[in-house]
Amino acid sequence: MTRFRHFLAVDWSGAAGERHKGIALAIAEARGGPPVLLPGRPSWSRTDVLAASLDLPEDTLVGVDLGISLPFADCGAFFPGLPESPPDARSLWALVDRVCAQDDHLAASAFVDDPRFAPYFRRHGGREGERFRCDDAAHGRGRFRVTEARQAEMGCKPYSNFNLVGAAQVGKSSLTGMRVLHRLGDRVPVWPVDPLPDSGSVIVEIYTALAALEAGRSASRSKMRSYEELNGALATLGSPTLAQTGPIDDHSADALLTAAWLRKVAGEPARWNPAGLTPEIAHTEGWTFGVA
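RESULT FIELD:
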């Protein structure tokens, strides 16, 4: 059993502009039924998602598909060697929002262009900052948080939040998401940066590929582009399926499947107590919900 009554999954986008087809929201109800897409206007903006996060149904578990922080444990700092490197995740969110104050639509271009922080990112045009790597990781995907290293061990294919290049890049998504988290303040707790409260709504970081893996998909087949594929995955999770058939965009499919997955696993105590999550990591790097 879980105390949550609603399960909202947010597939996120850090792309430039106001509205994004890459943002999709889906909700599953604890009382049952198939997950349902929430309609955008005509597509979601990041400010829309911020507004929705401030007006949640009571006792909603919100999963956002973005990195809520940057690597810290590997080098002892988000930005090793930089005097103003923040000490914890909430300070990082405040810094990103402050540096990007002039960026419209909760974008984060100013942060990655800032000469203080640019050396830590891999950017377009083959511009890999001299601080992009600080360990001997052989995968070449840049610095990982502890939770991302664990994702890789579980069969997922994570990328560094310092990577801004390629279809799999997650850096801009994470930085724009941090602006939203900062603006939420303390009105909605963000686990595990904040302790899990006994009641009320909570935001967690999700990785939609993890939900797909647990629904019987492989890492190379985690994206679903038909209702038939999606319904097969939903059935594997024990969720009621959708009546639609034919094509569906992968962002909507990710949100629908992950909402159903959150409903299935939120009541499992082990999901909230992963072995690698220490108080220091919780306050600096955070964690991806569901990663063991």
